[in-house]
Every structure is written in structure tokens, then in C-alpha cells.
Amino acid sequence: MKKYQIELKWALVFVGMTLIWMIGEKLLGYHSEKIAQHEVTTNFIAIPAIAVYVFALLDKKKNFYNGHMNYLQGFISGIIISVIVAAISPLTQYLTSVVISPEYFPNIIKYAVDNGKATQAEAISYFNLKSYITYGVIGALGMGAVTSAIVAIFVKSKNK
After folding, report:
1. Nearest-angstrom CA–CA distance, 20 and 133
2. Residue 124 to residues 30, 49, 78, 106, 110, Cα–Cα distance (Å)
3. pTM score > 0.90 for this model?
4. Residue % of the chain over a pLDDT of 90
5. Is the CB of residue 52 less than 8 Å from the CB of residue 10?
């Protein structure tokens, strides 16, 4: 387990950052009166998410690989972070949907229906805790893998 201590630490940092982001979205009104803008603004979470992966792989490079890490080592470290984040994401989504912003699903359903983006049945089947947990796990794995692949290119040690 000590071998993956850095990945666990950064996965927990990622989860914490995600929860803080969700609190921020709620406080700024993107789960209520500004819900029409939520679809765009929520994507800006990519900036701190990528930063977490950069700091995580730099930490792994410096403190586990003694300053020399190849691409594969960085990529695998990122994948491990992604798997941990994906495993925790049902809890993260539950906390977001039930504790932080329980009004989000009713608000987004109403918005989607009122603006002709979905029928009531479609909106209800898409905007719910179960589907968001599923999307969260898949998203954490998919986007985590892509982010890991890209960040590892920049963090790997240069050949001398």
C-alpha cells in the first residue's frame, strides 16, 4: 500500500477539490437561478482537475522515483489516481446531490423541460442520483485516463 500512498493522497485531494467546486457552484447560483449557465461553467472544473494531476505526478516523480520518472510510470500513477477517484465518486456524487445541493435535480429537470431540451420523462431518467453516479464513475475513469496520458508527457523526465 505504501507504493500507492502518493496516488491515494492526490485522489483524496481531487475528491476534496470536487466537493469544494460543487459548493462553489451552488453558492454562485449555478444549481438554481443561474442553472441555464451551469452546462458551460461546470466544465471549468477541468482547470483545477488538471492541476491536481500535474501536482500529483510531480510529487510521484520527486518523492517516489527520486526525480526520474518515465512516461509509463507517470501514466500508471495517473491511472491509479483515476481508479481511486472513480471508486470514491459514488460517495462524492451522493454528498453533492443529497447534502450540498439537493435542489439541483428538481431545478435541472424543470429547466430542461421548460426549455424544450427534454420531455419530463427524459429529464427525470437522465437527471437523477443513479445516472449521475454512473456518469461519475465512467467520467472519472475516462477523463482521468486522458488527463493522465497528457500530463505524463509533460512531467516525465527528459532524456539526457
Report:
1. 18
2. 19, 29, 34, 9, 9
3. yes
4. 97
5. yes
In the numeric block, the cell 501514466 is attached to 75
Q: Which among 159, 50, 137 is positioned nearest to 87, based on CA atoms?
A: 137
Separation of alpha carbons 74 and 72, rounded Å:
5
Q: Which residues of 43-67 are buried (b: 16+ CB within 10 A; e: fewer)?
A: eeeeeebeebbbebbebbbeebbee
Q: How far apart are CA 67 and CA 19, in angstroms?
A: 31
Q: Provide DSSP, 12-52.
A: HHHHHHHHHHHHHHHHTTTTTTTHHHHHHHGGGGHHHHHHH
Buried b / exposed e over 138-150, threshold 16 CB at 10 Å, is eebbebbeebbee
Strands (E), 47-122: none
Give the pLDDT confidence of 75-125 residue by residue, as tens digits: 999 999 999 999 999 999 999 999 999 999 999 999 999 999 999 999 999
